C-alpha cells in the first residue's frame, strides 16, 4: 500500500509564506492564514512542502488505504490560490455569490482575494471545517 505523501511537518508556516515570490499572493497567503485560524480555532501547520492546513482527521477507505489529512487547507501557488475545501454540491448558492473563481473536484481556485467576497469565502471555510468533523473519507484526496 502506498504511503500518504502529504503529512503534517514542522516546517515554519511563516517562512513558507514569506518565501512566496508574488507579493500579492504572499499577502493573500498571510490573510488566508489569519482568517482560517480565526474561523477554525486551529493553528496553521505545513502539510507537505506547500499546503497550509488547519486541524486534522484520520480517514480509512474500504480498500484499506488510510491516512491523516488536514480538515481544510490552502496553497499560494504561482498561478493562483488553491483552497482544499472538498466537494461543492452544498456550496452552489455560495459559489454564485463568491466572485471570480474556478473549481475542480476538491479545489477552489482564486487568482487573488480582491476578486472574491471575503464573507462568502469565510462561510465556505466555516462549512468545510464543520463538514470534516468526524469525517472518514479524505476530502482533498
Automatic annotation (TrEMBL):
Source species, domain of life: Bacteria
Start and end residues of each YdhG-like domain: 25-127
Lineage, highest ranks first: Bacteria, Pseudomonadati, Pseudomonadota, Alphaproteobacteria, Sphingomonadales
Name this polypeptide is given: DUF1801 domain-containing protein
Amino acid at each position: 500500500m502506498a504511503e500518504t505523501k502529504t503529512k503534517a511537518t514542522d516546517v515554519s508556516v511563516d517562512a513558507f509564506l514569506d518565501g512566496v515570490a508574488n507579493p500579492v499572493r504572499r499577502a493573500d497567503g498571510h490573510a488566508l492564514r489569519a482568517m482560517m485560524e480565526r474561523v477554525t480555532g486551529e493553528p496553521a501547520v505545513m502539510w507537505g512542502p506547500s499546503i497550509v492546513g488547519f486541524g486534522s482527521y484520520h480517514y480509512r477507505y474500504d480498500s484499506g488505504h488510510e491516512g491523516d489529512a488536514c480538515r481544510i487547507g490552502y496553497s499560494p501557488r504561482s498561478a493562483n490560490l488553491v483552497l482544499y475545501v472538498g466537494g461543492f454540491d452544498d456550496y452552489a448558492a455560495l459559489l454564485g455569490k463568491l466572485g471570480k473563481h474556478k473549481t475542480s473536484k476538491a479545489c477552489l481556485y482564486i487568482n487573488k482575494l480582491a476578486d472574491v467576497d471575503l464573507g462568502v469565502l469565510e462561510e465556505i471555510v466555516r462549512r468545510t471545517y464543520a463538514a470534516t468533523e468526524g469525517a472518514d473519507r479524505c476530502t482533498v484526496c
